Pyrrolo-quinoline quinone repeat domain-containing protein
Amino acid sequence: MGKTVWKTVCGKPIFSSPHCDQDYVYVGCVDGNLYCFSHFGEKVWAFSSNGPIFSSPCVSPFSRDVFFGSHDCFIYCCNREGNVLWKFETTSRVYATPFVFCSPKLGSKAFLVATSTDGRLWILNAKTGLAEDRGELPGEVFSSPVAWGSTIVVGCRNNYLYCLDLCLS
């Protein structure tokens, strides 16, 4: 490994995995902020939630909006300037990373799948933040869900991996 190119202090630990796109580096922090840095380490903006952020940011390849969850029981969508576009209240803390997807079987809309620690699974309209569907697993969920076609795959604390068919109207 070579020399450190840059580093910056965020105030509290970082459990979130950073996400890099062509312009920025995004990362959540235990201090409750989602930070946006340039690729030179300069802070561009910080968005403050009301709880620690363990969730890693998910950047939409369709809109370039940034999605993440917080311990304040909300899933957030921010634009690239750090302004909140919408937030969705879940029933428990959000540790896992949301996943944005489109499926030809489900039309042309972009969806966001997210989980909360009480075992709930949420399918949101990625543009509006409105719930399109929801489900419940028989245990706590810390696993980050992924979408494949018209299915969702997610792990549960009951030791099972689930593949769930989406039946959105």
About this structure: The radius of gyration is 16 Å. DSSP finds no helices and 15 strands in the chain. The chain has a mean pLDDT of 95.
